[in-house]
Amino acid sequence: MKVQETLQLLESSNSRQLMTQLYGADQAEKNVARYQELVKGFEKVYGDQDLLLFTSAGRTEISGNHTDHNHGKVLAGSINLDCVGVAAKNNSQKVRIISETYHQDFTIDLNDLSPSSKMAGTIDLTKGLLKGCLEMGYKIGGFNAYITSNVISAAGVSSSASYQMLLCAMINTFFNEGKMDKVAYAHIGKYSENKYWNKASGLLDQMACAVGGLITIDFKNPEAPKVEQIDFDFASAGHSLIIVQTGKGHADLSEDYSSVPNEMKKVAQYFGKEVLADVEEQAVIDNLQAVREYAGDRSVMRAFHFFEENKRVEAEVAALKEGRFQDFLSNITASGNSSWKWLQNCFTNSNYQEQGITVTLALTEMFIAEKKKGACRVHGGGFAGVIMAMLPNELVDEYVAYIEKAMGEGCAYKMSIRPYGAECWNELV
């Protein structure tokens, strides 16, 4: 589809209907204009080509904090912030990507997909995706892409995974006739982060960005995680999801993040297992003194968080299916308390005087206690960064004003769950 034809399609009633599904009625027109500007940007650089539009959601983790790496259970959703791209095959052995958001313009030769010595950054991540496709038996080829993203960076909503899944959708559409499923997308993204970034990530971020909607995932078999879409709309319950950016931590948090899966796995190792999903909670309790001596007390506390968090995910899914929204909110609160007290990922011990997350949680808990409505918890990896609040719509504006006065203007983002993950936009419209 050429440029003018694409611009006309974006003006159609079908386009506006899809934009409403993706971004909400109040943001539909704004995103029509956003896509149109992106198409014009593509044309300015690459000329008038047969192009397609692609979108890939950011994600929110609703429950299941730090469980996926030990093959546990999560509840997550794709959000109405996304990475959007215009792309066209170029019939060469080169991939050129321009990122409007991050002011990047780079070209990758498909004959050289080796990582750089630093193993970091967008180019290495992209090479890893292309190599991951080949390793998993899929085809790749040359294409041109022009990309923009409003997925908040460093805010626990997976801006990098959103980018990865966008490229997977392009590669699937252009070179694999739609044969790649969303689990394959996620494994390719994981491969890229593991092998080209040296990052020991799981599959949660990629799966939540790729699948779309509200989903629960059981990672007991990580090669084929069990994914179930939950038919529930928070808007129908009169609630909104708010992400609050509490400020970037100044400490290097790599060791903090790595300690969580490693300490959980240390408890599993006592029982001759690799991950906690293969251990019974009662076995830890029955052998507690020996496990404490072998793995340490924080490891034990984190293991207890893992077991109880899995149960909470099951309880939350059941509550949503059965329309028990207050029970769902109660479990969100319990999840937050467990992350704070048991998992202990709300601040880093290496810089204990810097506690943006705990200060913001304390303020939010006071707000919720006064109103007697809502729930909150740490969001994502923790230690610094982001919290999540779920509040009745009539309290959202008041809360945003309250929290931004305390934590800084522009720190709060209202979000909604959207029904689509990583997709070719043209196939949806």
Q: How are the secondary structure elements laid out?
A:
Layout: H1 3-10, H2 13-23, H3 28-46, E1 52-63, E2 73-89, E3 94-99, E4 104-109, H4 121-135, E5 143-149, H5 159-175, H6 182-196, H7 204-211, E6 214-218, E7 226-230, E8 239-245, H8 254-270, H9 281-286, H10 288-295, H11 297-321, H12 325-343, H13 356-371, E9 375-378, E10 386-392, H14 393-407, E11 412-415, E12 422-424, H15 425-428
Parallel strand pairs: 3-5
Antiparallel strand pairs: 1-2, 1-12, 2-5, 2-6, 3-4, 6-7, 8-10, 8-11, 9-10
Protein model, in words:
The chain is α+β, with helices and mostly antiparallel strands and 429 residues long. The protein is built from 15 helices and 12 strands. The strands form 2 sheets. Strands 1, 2, 3, 4, 5, 6, 7 and 12 form an 8-stranded mixed beta sheet that branches. A 4-stranded antiparallel beta sheet has the order 9-10-8-11. Helix 4 (121-135) crosses helix 6, helix 5 (159-175) crosses helix 7 (204-211) and helix 8 crosses helix 11.
